[in-house]
DNA sequence: CGTCCTATTGAAATTCTTCAACACTCGTGG
DNA sequence: CCACGAGTGTTGAAGAATTTCAATAGGACG
């Protein structure tokens, strides 16, 4: 990050870092990088690693979650429901993102595993206490919230103003660039697995399953993508896909 | 807020508070409440009050804004554009919200006055410096960012999964409850001015002007609202309007 | 082998948009 | 005082995009 505020990390020696945290991405890119080794030791005493199967619920909607977590691997979806059951996915999150709300705010969003997911969870009260003693921790959480806000607003443009093909192209482009950020620049063929099933893609794009399927077919027929298998996609020309995210001819 | 972290405000005496700030809503409900009187004096030396006419640009899109601001009055819209000119409003903001991005992050959003707007602006570098010395300030900014994120996600559900009538009802309900938060509970007839023109409402809802107009007509014909004048609306039964935000029959 | 889950495809129905015409308000200037 | 034009909002009819309903196919698993 090159952030001057990270100075306090200097007192961390590898030998003092809990085994649990040694190889964890959150310690570098995630929020745990704001903590001293002493704090990490304290945190790790209350920490549980767990695994959620694809489709299972991590935190229920509409409750102050008693625990927070860091994503270790997998993709997490957050979704909202209307009273009559229509669903909208409002966020996809990847390792090493933080899950849950600080300050006891309740969050009217259901948190579910989209793929199999591994997380490292700890009591929410502990997060709040650590925030109180470590401004750098709040700073990191704040930066993630700003990033989440940017992504939400970017997606509002997609939901409100893009056509069905553009939406599907935007989704594929989002996944491709999240799997490997380098991918944005490359001119080589790019191959990846879509971490969602069609129903989830539809709920993320504000479309029906059928429309998603038809648009994928259209992208395949025009050579923008190759479908290796339902979930496995090849993109021969990522720049062409990116162009399609904003103009459905092209 | 009843927040224990506000202790440092005890050293503020009214006599020491800059004239500029004395009657400002931001000092209580906004971010300035995190500052000591000394910091307020310092801030006020670099502060400018300005007025923007409805439709004028406050900060351009895609630049690191050199200044930040607090809204004193009026409604501010933030919008995103596709390369071919389609527009989506991603946020409406009211006094005493903070405008601009801390930490020199650039923000790919155009900030415009929806109504006539008064703001109190100051150099972004000063905000960053104050954040460094006052954790409570970052805490308040963080809380506003969390609120913005919740609103963005709520609106994603509206954009992705609601019908045209539901969208317009959601918009009217949003405005009604923002004009006066008490309004949510009342069973009396509620009257207010819509702060946006039809084109803006359309850009906020992901619809066309014509569809917005037709849905407003429909709501009028079914007695859900009375149109006093183009921008002036009466809602006889706010609970009925709220019900319409999630099911277009009702 | 049958069943469940996931995904695709077709045809009809619906919703929303596009294009076009018209109405209202407000300010300017003859 | 009235005419004119710009900006804003409404309405109708035709067209396009997406959804809905229905049928089918493939894979995973007991």
Secondary structure: elements and pairs:
2 copies of one chain form a homodimer.
Chain A: H1 19-22, H2 37-45, E1 48-52, E2 57-59, E3 67-73, E4 76-81, E5 87-93, E6 98-99, E7 110-113, E8 117-123, H3 124-133, H4 135-161, H5 164-179, E9 190-193, H6 198-205, H7 209-221, E10 226-229, E11 232-235, H8 238-244
Antiparallel strand pairs in A: 1-8, 2-7, 3-6, 3-8, 4-5, 4-7, 9-11, 10-11
Chain A binds a DNA duplex (30 and 30 nucleotides) through residues 163-164, 197-199, 207-214, 216-217, 230.
Protein model, in words:
The structure is a homodimer of 250-residue chains. Chain A is of the alpha+beta class and 250 residues long. Helix content of chain A is 38%, strand content 21%. Chain A is built from eight helices and eleven strands. Chain A has a four-stranded antiparallel beta sheet with strand order 1-8-3-6. Chain A has a four-stranded antiparallel beta sheet with strand order 2-7-4-5. In chain A, helix 3 (124-133) packs across helix 4, helix 5 packs across helix 8 (238-244) and helix 6 (198-205) packs across helix 7. The longest helix of chain A is centred in the middle third of the chain and has 27 residues, at 135-161. Chain A is globular. The two termini of chain A are 37 Å apart. Residues 1-12 of chain A have low confidence and may be disordered. Chain A binds chain B through residues 78, 80, 82-84, 86-88, 90-91, 101, 103, 105, 107-109, 132, 135, 138-139, 141-143, 145-146, 148-150, 152-157, 159-162, 205-206, 246-247, and chain B through 5, 78, 80, 82-84, 86-88, 90-91, 101, 103, 105, 107-109, 135, 138-139, 141-143, 145-146, 148-150, 152-157, 159-162, 205-206, 246-247. The structure holds a DNA duplex (30 and 30 nucleotides).
């Amino acid at each position: 990050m090159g952030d001057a505020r990270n100075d306090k990390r200097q007192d961390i020696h590898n030998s003092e870092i809990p085994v649990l945290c040694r190889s964890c991405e959150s310690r570098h890119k995630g929020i745990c990088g704001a903590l001293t080794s002493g704090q990490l030791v304290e945190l790790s005493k209350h920490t549980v690693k767990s695994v959620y199967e694809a489709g299972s619920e991590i935190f229920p909607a509409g409750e102050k979650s008693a625990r927070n977590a860091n994503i270790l691997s997998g993709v997490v979806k957050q979704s909202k429901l209307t009273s009559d059951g229509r669903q909208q996915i409002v966020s996809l999150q990847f390792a090493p993102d933080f899950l849950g709300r600080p300050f006891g705010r309740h969050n009217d969003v259901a948190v579910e595993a989209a793929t199999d997911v591994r997380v490292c969870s700890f009591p929410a009260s502990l997060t709040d206490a650590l925030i109180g003693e470590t401004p750098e921790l709040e700073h990191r959480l704040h930066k993630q919230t700003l990033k989440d806000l940017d992504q939400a607003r970017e997606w509002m443009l997609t939901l409100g103003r893009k056509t069905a093909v553009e939406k599907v192209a935007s989704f594929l482009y989002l996944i491709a660039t999240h799997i490997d950020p380098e991918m944005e620049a490359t001119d080589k063929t790019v191959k990846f697995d879509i971490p969602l099933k069609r129903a989830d893609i539809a709920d993320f794009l504000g479309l029906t399953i059928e429309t998603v399927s038809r648009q994928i077919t259209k992208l395949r027929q025009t050579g923008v993508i190759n479908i290796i298998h339902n979930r496995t996609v090849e993109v021969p020309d990522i720049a062409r896909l990116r162009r399609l995210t904003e103009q459905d001819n092209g």
